[in-house]
Amino acid sequence: MDQRIKLRIEYLRANLRYLNDVELAEYNRLTGQHLTHQQQHQAPQQTHQTSQAIQSMQSDQTYHSSKSYHQAPNFESNSSSDGYNKHHHPRPTKKPKNKKKRKKVSFWKKLRRFLLLVIVLMIGFFIYGYHRGKSKAPEGLKTEKFSGQKTPSGATNILILGTDQRDFQTTGDARSDSIMVMQVNAKDNKVKLVSFMRDTLVYQPGVSQYGADTKINVAYNIGEQDDHQGAEYMREVLKKNFDIDIQYYALVNFNSFATVIDSLYPMGVKIDAKFSTIDGQAVKSVDVPDDLNWTPEHQDPIQKIKVGPQRMDGRTLLNYARFRKDDEGDFGRTKRQQQVMQAIMSGVKSPLTLFTGSSALGTIKGVTSTNVSDFFMLTHAPGLALDAAKGIESYTVPENGDWVDALDQYGGSGLLIDFDKYQAKLKNLLG
């Protein structure tokens, strides 16, 4: 037997347990055996079978002729000069890979992920509802020029003007019967509301002739006649007379007020209607002008409002807030306006309630001429609602009876006040 075949058999036999199909077939052919795969794995590491096979092969020289040899697989070409096949090393038994254990996600981590998802969805629906409500805005509503100034304290002051403009009127025909400055984002997290009585006499640049001789409510009308700058001119008047810095403004007329209320409160605003005496007599109900239904053909519509707790829709709430024919006059009207603002804002008791009314919030933005940005509305509305739900700190300029009756430059009755005194009070209140 050729020495190289012997070495090959010895090699195959030594690694019998690890031979692949081709190698096992080669081993069976060279040794004349018929080992199966089962027998292959049961074979001992060392036996005498190989030597017997070699002897048998030596007795059969014909079988080991060169022809037979060349019929064998050509392992010589892949072997080194000493006959050892470098490509047939003993194959170690493969150890099964340990499956990586999945890390269990803790309950709290799952909860955090869930809450994050809920928050993202809430924000998404809130923004969607807001823009949906905003899209219902009437055509032609524009933002006026307003050179607002931030407060030194970092709080935000918003000028709120309620005008008596009706649908058939222009802004140049309207006056501001409701003049308020609302402060939000204060360091003490309180919402503060300052109301200015409409007949307060003030100095108006370019208009007043004898100092404080012009009613404050005409400032908006004068500004609107000057290229629609009513809000800006009112800001200048308040800064000149009371030293108040105001950053934003919002204009609300009869229709927009009613639309805002009905959008926010489809079931009405809960409010305790209060009136002073009329001609010295207590009243259980009052006939108030129905301003929203006023037309040139029907100029004296009336609505009866009972005293006491009730729910008011936008039209009724408007008429209630504008009434001033009881014995407290304009001061009583100012108190009712503050009460209405308190009821509106405190009715939203949580961000979730506001979330459900996001479309209404968009409607407010849509029907109101304002320079308050969408970003400010979306980011500050929930916090403002929470602060307002705790109560609004209200203040009236002037305080009840703290004025001197006087005449304006046109001969009309007005209220003359101590400006140094109220500048100090407003600085203490608003910062």
Describe the structure.
This protein is α+β, with helices and mostly antiparallel strands and 431 residues long. The protein folds into two domains: 3-78, no CATH class; 132-430, 3-Layer(aba) Sandwich (Aminopeptidase). Helix content is 41%, strand content 16%. The protein has helices at residues 3-14, 21-31, 37-42, 49-59, 66-71, 107-134, 218-225, 230-242, 254-264, 314-322, 329-346, 351-356, 358-367, 374-389, 419-430; strands spanning 156-163, 176-184, 191-196, 201-202, 214-215, 248-252, 269-273, 285-289, 302-306, 308-312, 369-370, 392-397, 404-407, 413-416. Strand 2 (176-184) and strand 3 form a beta hairpin. Helix 7 (218-225) packs across helix 8 (230-242), helix 9 (254-264) packs antiparallel against helix 13 (358-367) and helix 10 (314-322) packs antiparallel against helix 11 (329-346). The longest helix has 28 residues, at 107-134. The chain is elongated. The protein starts with a helix and ends with a helix.
Largest sheet: 6 strands, mixed
Q: What is the overall shape?
A: elongated
CATH architecture of the largest domain: 3-Layer(aba) Sandwich
Report the CATH superfamily of the largest domain. LCP protein
Following the backbone from N to C, one meets helices and strands in this order, namely: HHHHHHEEEEEHHEHEEEEHHHHEHEEEH
What is the strand arrangement across the widest sheet? 11-6-1-2-3-12
Features:
41% helix; 14 strands; Aminopeptidase; 431 residues; six-stranded mixed beta sheet; 2 domains; alpha+beta; two-stranded antiparallel sheet
